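TA notes, week 10

Several of you asked for a full example with nothing omitted. So below is the full record: structure tokens for the whole chain, then the designed sequence directly under it. When grading your own attempts, check the secondary structure regions first.
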């Protein structure tokens, strides 16, 4: 796989600093039942990296100390981690809002037949990847048969009250199927709701549009097709300074399957660890500094610290902006 990281580090992206922490985003491992073309994690069925129980308990200790209010679980397919249910139970018992970044098809896999009911029981927010309401586009991006399986899973969630009950939120996630920016989130959400209700009787709460980052599997595709420079220029040409105040790294930290900490999920995939010391006025553009473990943060306050940046950060600030919670504008 071609590596875009060396091309991203010498960046002119504006310096930004952390605000108050409220969200822990935890990557529970790279094991996944799918291998999507847009995946910035390069996850798949042959990956073996999975968070240990020791790491998960360190995360719970940090939640106890800081009073973090949201736990955002991702992967891979986070549900394939053998300690997924334990973490959800423990976080829910602490009145923490749990988000499951679900690929939907996992709900239909053998051994996971009770997963949807478990999520509903603990009122887990489901953020489900569905890059289009078109079968052709979804199968091109995520694999043959994925669209049909996703629809079946959404109908299963609807029957449990997801998308209709006040306490069971179901959000869908859109990624572009190519080197272009997402369309208007509001307009696309209206199209999704109309088409999915009309064709399949499916209801959901919100659509979240997320810009593809020029890293990992998607970045490799851009390089192999000679599209990297054009795509990065597209991101820069559509930079909006107004989005800087809302970027997710200001109130979120990303934790990898080993417990090491990053400013965001994208920095995690680029191995650009969170820094706990002061930086100059131009911000931090780093990749080789010593990594910080979540257990090391028990004695530190990272509020106000500089965020490690690179050219990929333009992906979060281009156009309507992009975060794990969808558009910023």
């Amino acid at each position: 796989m071609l590596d875009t990281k060396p091309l991203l580090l010498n960046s002119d992206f504006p310096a930004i600093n952390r605000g108050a922490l409220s969200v822990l985003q935890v990557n529970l491992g790279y094991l996944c039942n799918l291998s999507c073309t847009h995946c910035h994690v390069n996850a798949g069925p042959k990956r073996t990296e999975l968070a240990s129980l020791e790491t998960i308990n360190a995360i719970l200790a940090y939640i106890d100390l800081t009073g973090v209010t949201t736990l955002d679980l991702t992967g891979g397919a986070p549900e394939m981690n053998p300690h997924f249910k334990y973490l959800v139970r423990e976080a829910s018992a602490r009145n923490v809002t749990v988000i499951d970044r679900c690929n939907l098809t996992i709900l239909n896999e053998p051994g996971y037949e009770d997963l949807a009911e478990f999520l509903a029981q603990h009122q887990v927010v489901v953020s489900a990847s569905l890059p289009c309401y078109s079968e052709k586009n979804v199968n091109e991006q995520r694999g043959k048969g994925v669209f049909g399986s996703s629809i079946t899973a959404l109908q299963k969630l609807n029957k449990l009250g997801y998308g209709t009950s006040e306490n069971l939120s179901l959000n869908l996630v859109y990624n572009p199927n190519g080197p272009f920016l997402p369309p208007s989130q509001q307009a696309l959400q209206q199209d999704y709701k109309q088409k999915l209700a009309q064709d399949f009787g499916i209801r959901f709460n919100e659509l979240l549009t997320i810009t593809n980052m020029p890293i990992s599997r998607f970045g490799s595709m851009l390089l192999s097709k000679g599209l990297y420079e054009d795509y990065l220029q597209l991101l820069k040409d559509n930079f909006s300074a107004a989005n800087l105040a809302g970027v997710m790294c200001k109130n979120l930290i990303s934790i990898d399957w080993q417990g090491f900490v990053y400013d965001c999920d994208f920095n995690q995939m680029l191995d650009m660890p969170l820094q706990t010391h002061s930086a100059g006025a131009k911000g931090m553009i780093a990749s080789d500094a010593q990594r910080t473990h979540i257990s090391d943060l028990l004695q530190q306050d990272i509020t106000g610290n500089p965020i490690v940046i690179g050219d990929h950060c333009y992906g979060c600030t281009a156009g309507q902006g992009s975060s794990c919670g969808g558009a910023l504008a």
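The chain has eleven helices and eight strands. Use that as a sanity check on your answer.
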